[in-house]
Structure formats: structure tokens, C-alpha cells
């Protein structure tokens, strides 16, 4: 995926995080290395909502039985995983 597409994906991930946290300004201050679970502080309902919004935004289907929560260790990591997943479909 071209670099500009990766940047767009990261911005969209941050935007979705802002929606889920009900604080759009929150996303502006997130670094690409931010840990989605620990730094962003999603509770379990917010995490599920976030994952469903990712599916919708990127037109993908996440296999929740095999989902690796380590993929949420940073926005960069999640972007890489989504890019790879999107390419398989």
C-alpha cells in the first residue's frame, strides 16, 4: 500500500478512536505509536465498538476467534495488520 494510503488509514483509525471515546479532539493528540488498549484506555464495550467500526470503515471482516490483541499494541501495528488483511480480500 502506498505511504499516503497508510497515512490515511492511520488518520481513520485515530478518527474512529475519537468517535468511540466520544472525544474527537482526543484523536488529534494520538501518536502513531500509541497503545490502543493501554494508552487510549478503551473499556471492553468501547473495544468491541471500535473493532466493529473498523470492519465497517475498511470493509473487512475481523475473525474474533483468532484475533491477536497484540495487533492493538500501536496504531502503526494495527494499520499494518489492516493493510495486510485488506489485501487478502
| Content of β-strand | under 5%
What's the CATH first level?
A: Mainly Alpha
Indicate the CATH topology. Answer: Non-ribosomal Peptide Synthetase Peptidyl Carrier Protein, Chain A
Poorly predicted tracts of residues: none
Distance between the termini: 14 Å
Q: How many β-strands, per DSSP? A: 0
| Estimated radius of gyration | 12 Å
Main sheet: strands, sense, barrel: none
What structural class do the secondary elements suggest?
A: mainly alpha
Mean pLDDT: 88
CATH superfamily: ACP-like
Element order, helices and strands? HHHH
- Principal-axis shape equals globular
Helix content: 55-70%
Q: Any guess at the CATH architecture? A: Orthogonal Bundle
Number of helices: 4
| Count of all domains | 1
Write a structural description.
The protein has four helices and no strands. The protein has 89 residues and is mostly helical. The mean pLDDT is 88.
Strands, helices and their partners?
Elements: H1 3-20, H2 24-28, H3 44-58, H4 75-88
Helix pairs in contact: 1-3, 1-4
Task: Offer a few descriptive terms.
89 residues; mainly alpha; Non-ribosomal Peptide Synthetase Peptidyl Carrier Protein, Chain A; 4 helices
Structure described in brief:
It contains 4 helices and no strands. With 89 residues, it is an all-alpha fold.
Amino acid at each position: 500500500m502506498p505511504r499516503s494510503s497508510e497515512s490515511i488509514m492511520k488518520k481513520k483509525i485515530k478518527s474512529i478512536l475519537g468517535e468511540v471515546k466520544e472525544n474527537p479532539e482526543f484523536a488529534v493528540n494520538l501518536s502513531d505509536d500509541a497503545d490502543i488498549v493501554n494508552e487510549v484506555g478503551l473499556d471492553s464495550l468501547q473495544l468491541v465498538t471500535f473493532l466493529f467500526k473498523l470492519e465497517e470503515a475498511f470493509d473487512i471482516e475481523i475473525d474474533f476467534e483468532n484475533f491477536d490483541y497484540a495487533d492493538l499494541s500501536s496504531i502503526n501495528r494495527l494499520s499494518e495488520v489492516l493493510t495486510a488483511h485488506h489485501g487478502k480480500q
